[in-house]
Amino acid sequence: MLPASSESGWGINFTHQGDTIFATWFTYDLSGKPLWLAMSATKSAPGVYTGDVFVTSGPPFNAVPFSPGAVTETTVGTATITFSDATHATFAYTIDLPTPAALKSAITQTKNIVRQEFAAHLKPATSVEAEGSSRESDHETVHQRAIAAARQAILEMRSTDDIGDDAFHQLEEELDWLEMGSGGRGSQDVRSDS
Questions:
Q1: Of 126, 160, 8, 25, which Cα lies nearest the Cα of 81?
Q2: Residue 193 lies in a domain
Q3: Domain count, the chain
Q4: Domain range enclosing 101
Q5: Phi first, then psi: what are they for 94, rounded to 5°?
Q6: Structural domain includes residue 187
Q7: In a domain, 57, yes or no
Q8: In this predicted structure, what is the pLDDT of residue 110?
Q9: Which pTM value belongs to this model?
């Protein structure tokens, strides 16, 4: 998910399992240097996930052998992700990075974020030359719209607790396979509210 276009340059990635979202947040520290933070958030209400934000340090990426025991994790704040629909959420956080005492103060902000799409919706061919492929393209468009409608329906059912997490994930996986089998747009970087 990405911030509003007026804040292009930072973002957050989600992966989901059960009632937990793991997030990686790429941004910049107080001096403008690249900063990666991570978060493990658990479901606290329908469409709402809350957890600690942390930074890690460890051996360089080219260390041979890499020593997992040298990796440290430091909690630097908390955050809440609140999904309003399949493509929009708010990201509210309080972060207190380890900095010199003169700069030490917690930062609390709320950002609107949106799901990043990697492919635009395609319109069916309409030219005479493409008449043969137009029928196939029309079918493809209808198929993709049906999958999108089914995704929205299961998200709504999940947000109102009409279905549980296991049923939601099974249906979501079936829709993924349908979408891949139809030559659809494929998966995107995150599953909203999942």
A1: 25
A2: no
A3: 2
A4: 2-114
A5: -130, 120
A6: no
A7: yes
A8: 94
A9: 0.60
